[in-house]
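Provenance and format

Records in this collection were gathered into a single text stream. Each protein contributes a sequence line and a token line. The two records reproduced below are adjacent in the stream.
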Amino acid sequence: MVKMPSLAFVAAFLSLNFTPAFAEAPAAGAAAGAKTVTVFAAASLKNALDDAAAAFKKKTGVEVSISYAASLPLAKQIESGAPADIFISADVASADYLSSRGLLKEGTRVDLLGNSLVLVAPKIAGGKKVALEKAALLGALGDSGRIATGDPASVPVGKYAKAALTKLNLWEDLESRFAFAENVRAALLFVARDEAPLGIVYLTDAHSEPKVTVVATFPASSHPPIVYPFAQTASSTSESAAKFFAFLKGPEAAGFYKKQGFAVLR
């Protein structure tokens, strides 16, 4: 019988600092500052977007406030009225959710980045490669270990993980061995802290965390393409936001994406 996650595992989850974007986002209007640009973005973009925002501020003096979380919850917060100038999703479905409700500015949406899906393990475990097969995965998990990834109900990386494992005829065998997290960086943290022997995250997340190592890469054919749509929101009237959005599509920002391991699609 598979044991539930340890108390330490639960404590690690509760200590994560990825709080809801709606709670963090600055208020609209004067309270936000005339030049502040508010971005809601997939958690996997944190390193690259932080670098891009810092470079943009250095060039223009404009502050960029970025709230990171899973894509669909961010989309629903925008639907509920959370102030955001730019939305960046880790999947097409979350962007479609807003598009279908008229909440993205017409003509601004662009599929800008791509990513890969990988299996990671704590670096202290030695970095031995793990075959994407039932026996190898269960062996790496041991009697009570869990695979950390995003919740497939709301987190894009979890959706990609479920699709890949289903395609490889592994989902039914492994479904009970998962620990689902609220976003991909939370799942990555479980592995980095050695609270989970395996995790399924994006290649870019693995690049951001020195305490994990990639032990397998899922075939691109095993899951839908990992695409990041960028768009301005329909409610944004900020000239600064339009300038930052253009910057995100330009060559300087592309360098930050590539450094993190993203594929720049255009």
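Adjacent record:
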Amino acid sequence: MDKTPPPELSLGELKDELIEHLMQELCTPLTNIKTALKLLESPVLKPSQRRRYLGLIGGECDRQNSLINGVSRLIALDRISDRAAIVPIELSQIIPGIVSTYQPLAEEKGVKLGYTVSNNLPPIAFVEGWLRQIAIDLLHNGIKYTPSGGQVFVQATLQNEYVQLEFRDTGIGIPPSEIPKIFNRFYRIRSSADEDNNSAGLGLTIVQNLLLRCGGSISVTSQISVGTKFRVLLPTKRSPPNP
């Protein structure tokens, strides 16, 4: 199944919505944390209960930290939103370094990580900071949802006036019912039982918006227990500004 993301939402609108959502999200988790801390004061608390309450506190803190980081990322991206920042970029000068950065994480998890990016590809017209953010988010997702013994691979190919950057993995896959939702703001993919998901549900939303702002696009295909492919189209020519 193939899913193309919806029309662009400005970074300013996304940031405003995120801040509003953040304020709403902080209320319930803080109540849960306060309740767990109170329960931890019990003198008859069993070790299993203590671990459960501490785990709850840790999970809620991670989720709120992810939301706050999401706000920081959007503010930083908004500061370089001028389309004049679009420059010619050689993928062979960017992707290998990002893959190398994530090699230790992949090895620790037992995941094989590789890439193929030819030096003969034409330069793309993009904002370099945005390209790095897109590659980091998609590569991190691939490693996160791929179990030990699996593979994550990045490949660049020429597609007419675009360069296609494909991120494919042999991970757990995305249920068909969830594929239409994965680019929605604050939507978190339900992960496997042994994979905690404390993300803010913003990574793919940011990716799709950055691509649309520079004339690119993203699509996804996935099969349960087989893997997922994200295909990113990056323009090789400067596109006209969005209205």
